[in-house]
Structure to design on (332 residues):
């Protein structure tokens, strides 16, 4: 069974991520196959649009193949570096694709799943969508262009999403600029049908509906105030003084890797000043490459994915112990 399936019908090149038992998580073979097909379809006059979805009913994609990265990190290998290099090339290709690239962001869309969807031209969410960058919870930093996307959300919403590693709804994703259209999940078959006989924009005009209100937008006042601080320590201080919702966010952040939190905040602030996705992806590659060499990343994956004890032993264990030298190493 192919981990990614490719099908061309009625001028639509369809990519279906096909590892439903692994929540369609991306492996290197899937990334390479997507690169090959997207390049071929770009030059094919018979292809007028591309659509990506996920097999099964749980979501588009829960991220990269974390188990494979864990084994590579523990063995001191370099397979993950090759995977990331090709994955980030794929993210950039999607962002520059000359034909409509539709992403059905139904169900779970996490990490690498954001990378193969949120850089597309037509990003579709449903009432079931849960979109997020959960990396700080495993001692890692948002990648696949995640720091580019999150640094360009309204106000400080992206900083909140990145540091808490929380998942947001479809309407929240639209508000944050990570998605464009809301289609109820029961109407996805109608959309697929409309795409066979209508241009992309016309099909979406026929089927898409106004998105429900974004809950995150309603929290913008305290989020913008708390996360505008220059350090993670000051952000937490403001959150603890900011009411119940803010204090809950503080508790979520305090469970994450102190190192990953500080590196993520610097990466976001830096990404906001970088000119384009390509330069941000280059920065993310440097960060990812360094993360692979740290015990922090492997420990985070062990606690959340391998042993599932949810009790990572972070080192350094506190924010005050994470000095500039440790953070600088991720950007060198």
């Amino acid at each position: 069974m192919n981990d990614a399936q490719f099908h061309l019908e009625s001028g639509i090149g369809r990519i279906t991520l096909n590892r439903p038992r692994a929540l369609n998580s991306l492996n290197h073979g899937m990334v390479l196959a997507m690169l090959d097909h997207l390049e071929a379809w770009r030059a094919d006059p018979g292809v007028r649009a591309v659509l990506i979805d996920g097999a099964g009913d749980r979501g588009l994609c829960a991220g990269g193949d974390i188990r494979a990265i864990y084994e590579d990190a523990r063995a001191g290998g370099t397979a993950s570096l090759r995977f990331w290099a090709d994955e980030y090339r794929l993210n950039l290709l999607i962002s520059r694709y000359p034909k409509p690239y539709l992403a059905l962001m139904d169900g779970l869309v996490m990490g690498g799943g954001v990378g193969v969807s949120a850089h597309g031209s037509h990003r579709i969410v449903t009432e079931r969508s849960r979109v997020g960058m959960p990396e700080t919870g495993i001692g890692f930093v948002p990648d696949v262009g995640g720091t580019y996307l999150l640094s360009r959300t309204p106000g400080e919403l992206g900083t909140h999403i990145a540091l808490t590693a929380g998942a947001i709804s479809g309407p929240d994703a639209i508000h944050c600029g990570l998605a464009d259209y809301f289609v109820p999940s029961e109407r996805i078959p109608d959309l697929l049908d409309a795409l066979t006989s209508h241009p992309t924009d016309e099909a979406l005009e026929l089927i898409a509906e106004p998105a429900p209100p974004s809950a995150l937008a309603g929290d913008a006042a305290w989020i913008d105030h708390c996360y505008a601080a220059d350090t993670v320590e000051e952000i937490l201080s403001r959150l603890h003084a900011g009411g119940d919702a803010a204090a809950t966010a503080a508790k979520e952040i305090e469970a994450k890797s102190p190192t990953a939190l500080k590196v993520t905040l610097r990466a976001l602030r830096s990404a906001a000043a970088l000119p384009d996705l390509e330069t941000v992806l280059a920065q993310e590659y440097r960060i990812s490459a360094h993360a692979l060499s740290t015990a922090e990343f492997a420990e985070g994956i062990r606690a959340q994915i391998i042993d599932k004890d949810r009790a990572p032993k972070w080192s350094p264990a506190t924010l005050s112990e994470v000095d500039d030298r440790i953070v600088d190493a991720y950007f060198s």
User: Anything to note?
Assistant: Residues 79-95 form the longest helix (17 residues). Strands lie at 4-9, 12-17, 49-54, 59-61, 101-105, 108-110, 122-125, 130-132, 167-169, 181-182. The mean pLDDT is 97.
